[in-house]
Design brief:
six-stranded antiparallel beta sheet; Pdz3 Domain; about 50% helix
Length: about 400
Amino acid sequence: MSENILFDVLQAVALFFLNPLFIVVLIIAVALGYFRVKRERRSFKVRLLPGLTELKQLLSESWLYALVLSIVISGAGLLVDPGWLVLFTMAALVGLVSFYYKIASPIYFVAVAFFALYVMGEYASAFTFRGWSPGQVDLLGELAITIPVIAGLLLVAEGLLIGRYATKYASPFLLETKRGLRAAVFKVKRLWLLPIVFVIPGDMISAYVPYWPQFTLGGNAFSFIPIPVIIGFSQVARSMYPDVLFPKIGRAVGWTGIAVICLGLAAMWQPILGWAALVIGVGCRAIISIVASLRERKGGFIAAPHPEGVMIAGILPNSPGEKMGLIAGECIRTVNGIQVNNEKELYDAIQINAAHCRMQVIDRNGEVRLMQQVIYRHDHHRLGLLVVR
């Protein structure tokens, strides 16, 4: 008996890791890092972060959110339909392979799966698979509450992830302006993986895997099933700095999630409000992306060449420049007492004093401050600065 239980547990774990969505997201995370590094080297001859950064951060930043969501969803008894889970995973897979991560918000996948289930119930109600049929799903019952609430929870998690981590991995690259100059813009294209445990009613899972985690309440059987949930985010910042723009987007997405949760709970009295919650959630999330993109496209380049010095586009991690507190968007006016106007003059001035570097910097607010840093033999000879040139 114990051997059978162990075998089924291992089988359950293997099924999770062999989920096509899980495998594809690993491959694409590597590809995102590869293309980011190529873009950075094309602009600056050096990459800002290692190519496997996206893969390493895929789960490390989101596992706590996944744990909290799993506890909330399971503890509150937010039941979902197994057919909806399959459609949800399929929608996420399509969004993932599209590489267009403005549509990789989980609210889109949740809504597509929900309304696809409705269409199947209307036009393919006779379809059956291992005892499941779309004609048996009541979308004006409990699912009208639980699915919008789950969608809202996922939106809140998305907003928190964007606000906390998107800025950290903003990748600068150079773009030609209308005047023929080169200015820096900042692009983020991130994926987060959340292994979330969902609860489905009935004993469909245990019928095929006898020792799959299951419990009974009031004579009804329930099963736990872990699903890899994907959250994607893509945005280019050029008229606002990433540390200003992305937290704003994150807050807007988070508040949208709270509104969806409230409407989903109101569906306990009027089920159609659950449908409205999904539609409003999709609409608001799309508006947030569209408004941010249009504003950035129409705005000017905030990290453009500066007449008084050299504009910083990025700082290599753990470099002397980072230790000095330099940030993207600041302008270096003098180095070691020498006025600098371009990249060559900047690096020539740095070499004048190979042991100690003193800079006069114009910050984002136009104020001048003095900075200095001891340079050690193993440090980056260019202070780790990526500059607009």
